[in-house]
Design goal:
The complex is a heterotrimer. By secondary structure, chain A is of the alpha/beta class. Chain A has helices spanning 53-60, 88-94, 106-109, 116-127, 132-145, 162-174, 192-209, 220-226, 244-249, 254-262, and strands at 9-22, 25-38, 42-46, 69-78, 81-82, 99-102, 180-184, 212-217, 229-234, 237-243, 311-312, 318-319. The two termini of chain B are 30 Å apart. Classes of the chains: A alpha/beta, B mainly alpha, C alpha/beta.
Chain lengths: 336, 291, 316
């Protein structure tokens, strides 16, 4: 079992459990997620709608809406700070400064009645002891960094296109040089060619500022492009984790295999896709055993008895699948 | 083959709505009060004789407070207030409901047309409504009743016409938000014509604001009736009517508050019960809130 | 040569906007053969959805011809059009907005049959609804549920069943899977392929997702700012993308594989909207190879090799 040195970790989440307690029942959104992310590295969280990716990211900044969200268990250390036990005031200093978040829809994170420049400069003034003028100056720099001319400082969000707005949001998130960037589907709302531009910008900035990043997405293509490590999330648990090579070329979990089978790939033309049958389990009523078992073609009656534990396949690669207790078990997907 | 299917039995739309409405306690209270008011109005003649009790003056017992004999007391002419309220309900409720029904039909149709088609039609209808709105509604009603001659029917028409623009606007704006939904385009794609689209897809999805508006407007129609009656353009004395009873009792507010309290209470009760029922109906008609 | 089910000639759809005339679809010409799938790709605002809706006359085209089975449908009156709609249907992108929230599954699927008086009898209609539900893989017990009680994949199946109810020949699919999760997306794509094979359907498949069209379509048409700029059989287009925009678009797809790294062509700038477009090639402002000729003269769609059409001066 591979343990990373806690000193190298920007983010250390252990056994995180988050429930949403609603009138219709308890939504088990996150069920024991562990994340160990080193400084400057990028982790991809990939999974489908409702798998708990966004809730996990929100919890890092303690932004899970409460009520109904309740953090039931777990510890979160961000740059050595115990986020779970931080007083409100210090939390505010962490948000935007130590770690900041980029949301999917740039329109929801920009205030339509302020100019984009003012919005960036406000973040800077809030976290750094500097005059309004210095903050404005730095905000102009940030705009240039993300590829927007400084002259557009005084324009309002509606004067920008979707891709430009997302750049503004990125500039805002990076304004205080955070050590960790949480990007929640940052390019999903954008067109492919614009997505390519924004991803390129993000990659460049990450190198320039050396920030670590968690990239949340449902697109394995984006993961392949920007991440160092991948965690595949299903029903609030990481079912497979490893380096890019581990997960893409030595896929082990049946769900990951299913995801690859569901994707049309422009490299290989197949007559039919191989989708995962069935639906995501109802998060208010998760199966007792492996949550993927009802949809899994390899499932045995034993799979329904208990949640599978982590099984380390190498120093960097683990799966949660009890079939790997059998020495000869193999999934169909070949190593690439 | 369909007979062998084990699908849940489909209830009719009405059963479904009733089942959901029954679960809403406040709506059931509202419904009970509305029913009670309606029954009282329907059986008013059996309860109190019109000529002997309702309009016959008896100055000997004028302005008496509530007592065992006259539960709600007597008015300035010594008439039993309870009896007058029960008989007055006939006029107030009928005028309120019918005026609103006329207004809703005309205003709703105009609003639906203007919201659905947009463009020049919308322009024309909206401007016409703006002109109507620019004239104070009471003044408009007065003009209409004066022109047509005072009668209960004309009163209802006058009140209806003056509240048409309100309905037209509300229906127009809801139709416009529903119109752009893809399911409207989907209906077009399967060959539905405009009338079919409006009737089966657009209006059902605009019900919520309309129902709320209706339940509020019945009350304001009752109040308008009283205003017009007060000016001598509506119900003539000695015919009992809630609004005119309310305004008639104004002069005795200090010494005999029961003259205004009870009619006012009746109007309030009507509004409240219609509102509760309206709220409940709105929820019951919305399948998204189905439990 | 297979029978051409649909021919679109010089189709134009302009919208009047406060800023000027929006050339949403500008002089688009293509054909679709019976039983085949034409993929139409492009980014938001390129006019691909408007083209689909103009063909079905959900947006009345400004000019041009739409010839369906040999007849120009743009000259049809309302009654004739209503009958034609039995043969041409539409599947929507958003399975949440395209189903009336106040209707149950059976009402939605049965609506075309009721409206068009194909099966006026209620019991018989319900029988057909069950049959359609089975075809698209919806469990019978869902017959009286409302759309909001179901997930996106099932809702999209309802939309497909509604489109199939009148046994159409041609279906415009407007981004039918882009609102769905990958695993559900694959289920729906496979279903659509099965239906095409069983019923001999012809699809016009509109999407922004190039990997999906590559998988799904026989021919691909690429649109940019209201114009068709390249059209070719799927394999040819991916092997030999010729228009600089197609090349950039293909290179921008993130590929879920580590083995082949593609050379990425990054475009400058962003898509503008085709309001009062200037003469010349509409892509010239972002094109890395643009010349003076591109900025002054509009390129026409030319066949550069059999079945491969490109509108670019560089091909001369």
């Amino acid at each position: 079992m591979a343990q990373k040195n806690p000193k190298d970790l920007i983010l250390d989440i252990k056994d995180l459990v988050i429930h949403y307690e609603t009138d219709d029942g308890t939504v088990e959104a996150v069920n024991g997620i562990d994340i160990q992310l080193e400084y400057g590295k990028t982790l991809g969280l990939v999974g489908e709608t409702g798998s708990g990716k966004t809730t996990t990211a929100l919890s890092v900044l303690r932004l899970v809406p409460d009520p109904p969200g309740v953090i039931k268990n777990g510890s979160i250390f961000l740059d050595g700070k115990d986020i779970m036990n931080l007083p409100q005031k210090e939390l505010e200093a962490v948000r935007g400064h130590l770690a900041s978040m980029i949301f999917q829809d740039p329109m929801t994170s920009l205030n339509p009645v302020f100019t984009v420049g003012d919005q960036i400069s406000e973040v800077i003034a809030l976290h750094e002891n500097c005059s309004k003028k210095e903050a404005d100056e730095k905000a102009g720099d940030m705009l240039e960094v993300v590829g927007i001319p400084r002259e557009r400082f005084a324009e309002y969000p509606h004067q920008f296109s979707g891709g430009m707005k997302q750049r503004v949001v990125i500039a805002m998130a990076l304004a205080c040089n955070p050590k960790l960037l949480l990007a929640d589907e940052p390019t999903t709302a954008l067109d492919v060619t614009i997505q390519a531009q924004v991803l390129e910008t993000m990659k460049g900035l990450r190198e320039k500022f050396g920030s670590a990043m968690i990239m949340i997405t449902h697109d394995l293509g984006i993961i392949a492009e920007v991440c160092d490590e991948v965690s595949v999330v299903y029903a609030g648990q990481i079912v497979e984790h490893g380096t890019l090579v581990d997960v893409f070329n030595h896929t082990r979990h049946p769900y990951t295999e299913g995801l690859f089978g569901s994707l049309p790939n422009i490299e290989i033309k197949r007559n039919r896709l191989s989708p995962i049958p069935g639906l995501m389990p109802d998060p208010t009523d998760l199966p007792k055993g492996c949550c993927f078992a009802p949809r899994c073609k390899y499932a045995t009656p034993d799979c329904e008895k208990a949640r599978p534990a982590k099984k380390w396949l190498s120093d960097t690669h683990y799966v949660r699948c009890s079939r790997y207790d059998e020495p000869n078990f193999k999934i169909e997907r070949e190593d690439q | 083959m369909a007979a062998t299917k084990a699908a849940p039995k489909k209830r009719s739309q009405f059963e479904e709505v009733w089942r959901r409405l029954k679960k809403n306690k406040m709506a059931m209270v509202g419904l009970a009060i509305v029913l009670m008011l309606v029954l009282l109005a329907v059986f008013a003649d059996f309860l109190f004789d019109y000529d002997e009790i309702v309009i016959k003056q008896n100055t000997a017992i004028r302005l008496q407070g509530p007592s065992a004999e006259h539960w709600f007391g007597t008015d300035e002419f010594g008439r039993d207030i309870l009896a007058r309220l029960v008989h007055g309900g006939r006029i107030s409720l009928v005028v309120g409901v019918i005026a609103v029904a006329i207004a809703l039909t005309i205003g709703g149709t105009l609003g639906a047309i203007s919201g659905f088609f947009g463009g020049k039609v919308d322009m024309l209808i909206s401007r016409a409504m703006d002109i109507l709105l620019a004239v104070p509604s009471l003044l408009l009603s007065i003009t209409i009743v004066s022109a047509l001659g005072p009668s209960i029917l004309n009163l209802m028409i006058a009140i209806a016409v003056s509240s048409v623009p309100g309905y037209a606007r509300i229906v127009r704006s809801s139709v416009m938000t529903v119109r752009d939904n893809e399911f409207v385009e989907a209906a077009k794609a399967i060959g539905a014509n405009n009338a079919q689209i409006i009737a089966s897809h657009i209006l059902p999805n605009c019900l919520a604001p309309i129902i709320v508006q209706v339940s509020l407007k019945v009350a304001s129609a009752i109040l308008s009736t009283s205003g017009l009656s007060f000016l001598g353009l509506g119900v003539k004395a000695p015919t009992p009517e809630w609004g005119s009873m309310l305004s008639g009792g104004r002069a005795y507010l200090r010494n005999a508050p029961h003259l205004t309290v009870f009619p006012g209470f009746c109007i309030m009760l009507t509004i409240l019960s219609l509102n509760l029922l309206g709220d409940g109906l709105r929820d019951a008609l919305d399948p998204k809130l189905k439990q | 040569m297979a029978n051409k089910i649909l021919e679109v000639k010089n189709l134009k759809k302009y919208f009047q906007t406060p800023k000027g005339m929006l050339h949403a679809v500008d002089d688009v010409t293509f054909t679709i053969e019976e039983g085949k799938t034409l993929g139409v790709v492009g980014e938001s605002g390129c006019g691909k959805s408007t083209t689909g809706r103009a063909i079905l006359r959900l947006h009345e085209p400004t000019s041009g011809e739409v010839i369906f089975n040999g007849e120009n449908i743009l000259t049809k009156n309302a009654d004739e059009m209503r009958l034609l709609r039995r043969q041409m249907q539409l599947i929507f992108q958003d399975p949440y907005a395209s189903l009336d929230p106040r209707n149950t599954v059976s009402e939605i699927i049965g609506e075309p049959l009721k409206l068009q008086k194909i099966i006026p009898d209620k019991a018989k209609r319900l029988e057909k609804v069950y049959e359609l539900m089975e075809t698209v893989g919806l469990a019978e017990r869902l017959v009286n549920t409302y759309p909001h009680e179901l997930d996106g994949g099932r809702r999209q199946r309802i939309g497909i069943a509604r489109a199939l109810a009148m046994e159409p020949k041609f279906i415009v699919c407007d981004e039918p899977v882009s609102a769905l999760d990958v695993s559900i997306q694959a289920q729906i794509l496979n279903l659509m392929q099965d239906l095409q094979e069983q019923m001999g359907l012809t699809y016009m498949f509109i999407t922004h997702d190039l990997s999906v069209v590559h998988h799904f379509a026989d021919d691909i048409a690429v649109m940019y700012l209201g114009q068709l700029i390249e059209k070719a059989p799927s394999g040819m287009l991916f092997d030999k993308p010729t228009h600089p925009y197609t090349q950039a678009l293909l290179s921008a797809i993130p590929v879920p594989s580590l083995n082949k790294k593609r050379e990425r062509i990054l475009l400058k700038g962003e898509i503008t909207s085709p309001i009062n477009p200037k003469p010349g090639c509409r892509f010239a402002a972002r094109c890395p190879y643009a010349t003076d000729r591109c900025r002054s003269e509009e390129p026409k769609l030319k066949e550069i090799e059999p079945n491969h059409f490109v509108a670019c001066h560089l091909c001369d």
